[in-house]
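Q: May I have one protein plus its fold?
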Amino acid sequence: MPCSKFAPAAAAMVALFLAGCAAPGTQRVAVDNAAVKIEERKQMEIVAEELMAEQLRLNTIRWRLATRGKAVCREDVGPLLGLHSMTRAKGPLGDVMAAKFGVTEKPTVVHVVAGSPAELAGVMKGDILKAVNGVPIAEAKSLEEANEKWRPGAPFSIVLERNRLAVTVTAVPEVGCKYPVGLSPEQIINAFADGKRVMIARGMITFARDDNELALVVSHEIAHNSMKHIDAKKQNMGLGFLADLAAVLLTKGQVSNTNFAGLAAAAYSQEFEAEAAYVGLYLMANAGLPIDDAPRFWRRMAAANPQSIKTNHTASHPSTSYRMVALEETVKEIQGKISRGEPLLPNMQEGKPFIPK
């Protein structure tokens, strides 16, 4: 029998089941569809305002850590102007960003850090970036890519579009940790680094009670990058892959599910996390930010993730109890160096000096 002949019977059965479903008993108010559309716009505006405020908060924190703590980033430094640009996203959020903040399809300046080279040069919110040092800027990403090629400390010639007129300014960038810090939209308590940048989830921003706690998170992720943890994990994974291949060849294919690559990628994960916490506090101290309450932050993290309190050798992060004790000892170590007037640089293993930029 053709399937189409089953359709009326199936529809009747579905209708019968739905007729037996419980329904609300009150007489609700009438809702105008036009009013619903207006409310949608209001809520989208709130989203846009919060996203912008959170990103600007990250920009300010990142600027201080990157410029004052650059010694901890060693060779990973570059020219920083202190401006943040955006291009218009597609969809309703992009429409709201355009209406509220003037974001266009071209890189539009939405934030200029107070006291930064960009502000001193006269860059203003709403300016459209046209070219930097003769390089046309078609999108925000192209500015980051071009920035990799420029020498720190050399003057930057910036061509802007302001009120449909071309404006050229000159800025002398500061040298600082070159990792940009972006906002991830997830409402989870998380942050990560990929070797080139840092991403902070919105949930983490909500969790941090003040900018000092948020700076702890940002400095921790910057430390992952400066200590080349991502590169180390990739190297370890490559060695594990070779071990997997060797197992297949030596057993003539009888063993093929060894997963040495996965095991090698996870090797020293806890040690890398502990090192990022250690180096991150030095970054905070160099930036002139308070470090005394760092253990308290991790205690709060433990309360939010009770499963992380006890040591778990298979976990990627050290236990929060270990972190708290280690951070307390690090605070003592840094305070001792401050009192003795010593450079605020992490202690390295014997024979491996920490070479700042």
About this structure: The two ends are 79 Å apart (CA to CA).
